[in-house]
Amino acid sequence: MNVQELTSNIEKALTEIRPFLEADGGNISLVSIENNIVRVQLMGACLDCSVNQMTLKNGVEATIKKYAPQVLEVISVK
Predict the structure, then answer these.
(1) What is the pLDDT of residues 6-64, one digit of tens each?
(2) CA neighbours within 13 Å on the CB side: how many for 49?
(3) DSSP class of residue 60?
(4) In the chain, helix, strand, coil percent, each to 5?
(5) Which of 63, 12, 6, 56 is nearest to 33 (CA)?
(6) Which residue in 41, 59, 61 sits closest to 51, CA to CA?
(7) Cα(24)–Cα(71) distance, integer angstroms
(8) In this structure, which long-range contacts are made by residues 39-44, counting pairs with CB atoms below 8 Å and at least 24 apart in sequence?
(9) What integer pLDDT is reported at residue 43 of this predicted model?
(10) Domain range spanning residue 62?
(11) Residue 48 maps to which CATH number?
(12) What's the confidence (pLDDT) of residue 60?
């Protein structure tokens, strides 16, 4: 899978996740992809949420890996 396809698949995953985050006053955006590590930025209410790391790993990372199994990890950046 080339970078363009990988980016497209990750954006599809984020589109699936976004409504759940928006319902709680948050959002997410793709920052970068390097060496199959995806960097995202949590926004809004997600920044201060006490369960944002659980959401990142169990929700965001799991969904991204469903669309792009070669992704090794998803990291939140500020």
Answers:
(1) 999 999 999 999 999 999 899 999 999 999 999 999 998 888 888 888 888 888 999 99
(2) 18
(3) I
(4) 50, 25, 20
(5) 6
(6) 59
(7) 26
(8) 39/74, 39/75, 39/76, 39/77, 40/14, 40/74, 40/75, 40/76, 40/77, 41/76, 41/77, 41/78, 42/76
(9) 92
(10) 3-76
(11) 3.30.300.130
(12) 93
The larger pLDDT score, comparing residue 70 to residue 48, is at: 70
Longest alpha-carbon distance in the chain: 35
User: Does the CA dihedral 32-55-72-77 come out positive or negative?
Assistant: positive
Residue 3 in this model has a pLDDT that exceeds 90: no
How many domains does one find in the chain? 1
For 20, the token pair is 């759940």
